[in-house]
C-alpha cells in the first residue's frame, strides 16, 4: 500500500432549498464571499462561498439536489490523487464519476454509510464547463495523467 500525505477537508456541500438566500445569510454573518453561482446536472443550482478565495476556490457549497451533498478532501499532489484513486479501486470501491473542470481534478466515492466523498487536487486553472466523467475508462485515463 502506498503511503500518502493525509488530505485536508477542502469544502462541504450541503443541501439547500434556497442556495442563494442561504449563501447571503453566511455572507452577512461570517463575511464569507460568494465566489459564484452555477447550475449543473449533478448538483442542480448551487452557490459557492469562500472565506479565503485566494487560497481555496470554495469552502462551502449550497446545492439544490440533496443527493449531491458531499465532503471534499484536498490533496497536495497529482501523485497523491492518483494513489488514493488506485487505493479505492483496489478495495473495490466504486468511482461513479470524476471531474476535471479547470479549478480542480477529482473523483467521487461513497463511504459504507452512503455519504459522498470527493477527493480533489486544486489546479487553479480557469474554470471550464466540462461535464462530469462517468465512463470508467475515461476516469482511469484522467487519474493516470501525470499533469494536473
Summarize the structure.
With 148 residues, the protein is an alpha+beta fold. It has three helices and eight strands.
| End-to-end C-alpha gap | 23 Å
CATH architecture annotation of the largest domain: Roll
CATH fold annotation of the largest domain: 2,3-Dihydroxybiphenyl 1,2-Dioxygenase, domain 1
Morphology call: globular
**Which structural category fits the helices and strands?**
alpha+beta
Unreliable spans are none
Number of helices: 3
Question: What integer value in Å does the Rg equal?
Answer: 15 Å
Provide the domain count. Answer: 2
How do the strands line up in the largest sheet? 2-3-4-1-5-8-7-6
Reported for the largest beta sheet, the result is: 8 strands, mixed
CATH secondary-structure class of the largest domain: Alpha Beta
Proportion in β-strands: 25-35%
Average the pLDDT over all residues and give the rounded result.
Answer: 91
Give the SSE string. Answer: EHEEEEHEEEH
CATH homologous superfamily grouping of the largest domain = 2,3-Dihydroxybiphenyl 1,2-Dioxygenase, domain 1
Strand segment tally: 8
What is the percent of helical residues?
Answer: 10-25%
